[in-house]
Amino acid sequence: MIAHIAIDIGGTRMRAASYSPTSLTPIKINRIPSRVLGTTPQIRLLDLVNSVWPDDEDVESIGVASAGPVDHEAGIVMTSPNIPELNNFPLSDYLLQHFDVPVMLGNDANLAALGEWKYGAGQGHDHLIYFTISTGIGSGVIMGGHLLTGSRGMASELGHTNVLPDGPLCVCGQRGHLEAISSGTAIARWVKAELDNGVPSTLSKIQPVTARDVAEAAGQGDELALAAFERAGTYLGRALADFLHIFNPSIVIFGGGVSKSADLFIEPVRIAMKKHVISPGYIENLIITTAALGDDSGLIGAQW
Amino acid sequence: MIAHIAIDIGGTRMRAASYSPTSLTPIKINRIPSRVLGTTPQIRLLDLVNSVWPDDEDVESIGVASAGPVDHEAGIVMTSPNIPELNNFPLSDYLLQHFDVPVMLGNDANLAALGEWKYGAGQGHDHLIYFTISTGIGSGVIMGGHLLTGSRGMASELGHTNVLPDGPLCVCGQRGHLEAISSGTAIARWVKAELDNGVPSTLSKIQPVTARDVAEAAGQGDELALAAFERAGTYLGRALADFLHIFNPSIVIFGGGVSKSADLFIEPVRIAMKKHVISPGYIENLIITTAALGDDSGLIGAQW
Hints:
2 copies of one chain form a homodimer.
Chain A lengths: L1 E8 L3 E7 L8 E6 L7 H12 L5 E9 L3 E2 L4 E2 L13 H9 L3 E5 H12 L7 E7 L3 E7 L2 E2 L31 H4 L1 H13 L14 H9 L3 H25 L3 E5 L6 H15 L10 E4 L6 H5 L3
């Protein structure tokens, strides 16, 4: 029997799993924190892969989903959010040398889009947009059955498009990007600013406020928390109208931590999207849904 | 010998040409106004095709580039700007019945992108964005060697993306779209508003002002005219930064009437684009140029 190993490198944790070609249930799966004092992420990544190496199967390939931009062709991590040791690191060569198995490296949101397309909510949809909304907003696009990569693998950064000129500062240094308004971080930041302005809320007791806190407060009817998700959803819906004009997908899938609160923002998304499309044809048969593979979209998409 | 016929249906004129498979120089070419009182565009289109039908070659296919949205699969013109008789008209069936030759219908900007990619400025670039800037802003995108069409053929409407919330009204009914700020119509409209505000200019003697008038005045150093192109270019460059994040192309090509004044807006485009990209990698080897096939991009791209 043969097996494939998939790795998902995120800012806070690294995960790995081994899969047989016939099942989405891993043979072995493991996760570790991304950074630990006194050891390098590289060494710990080797240990992680060893820990999921199957006992009886031959490993045919290793696929790696990495947060942030990657050079897909060269197999180099360009920037790894929160793991500076991996910036400009030739990860594919490193793993190939240690395990003598071909390695494929991709951006985590792109591979999550592939995972949802092949095995998840997007099955049968050859024109698909996937968003992962958590700390930031990542995205992956399938067009005509092909993953959108661009000339240097830097395409489909939909979170870094302007929705509000001179708007809030984005981690990339630009202003008014979708990520700076509708990500989990941006939701929490907006709530904090409103609290500082004296807006009453049950959240005033919490320090620091996270998007998860805001979601919990919204679930209990807190008006500021509800307004925060409505604002994020409205901007997301307006941006989505433009993405429909650009890509004309048949399905849009939301993944990532914030998507677990989809019931709090999907209606504002729909209202703003409907208001801003130039023709009803863009939304007539459009499906808007959440990731079917949950946190495993990227890991499952990293198999090849 | 065999030949292909290509048709380009625009708001003001219809053009047709016959081509042998080995040359971009037409066997025959002809053009007529799109609308004439006392006859239908359909009948005149048949006359136009007959007028370019080759004497000695067998016609193998007819390709039609039509302005505005089309249903590519069904061969139906959805909306034809300025030719209401063609709205929702099954053009492919109509031509097939009359000429007994297979017909392919596409959006003109999409087919112009194909033309520039195969035979023009975009040769060798499999990740390409083409803009036609004239009355409006049309666009076509080649990604990984495939024309971006979307699930219903309605993709790549890059002119209808928001660059200025609550900005100028677009012909589509939305506000602040790129087309409403950087098209020829928008340039002329902005100049008119400035003139109405009392801004001095040599253009104050002209009624009504067109984008061509503005270009001529700019060529003679008129400050208002120069400012109009700088404004249009700056917004175009900012939007382009986002399109680079989305598509990561290796080349951007400008066609259409306004692109003949590229020297007036390309520098503001470059400055704004450079200022707004999230990584220099997006512009390092990026080529920005004008259409090599000029007005024939769409006609040549309609061959198949």
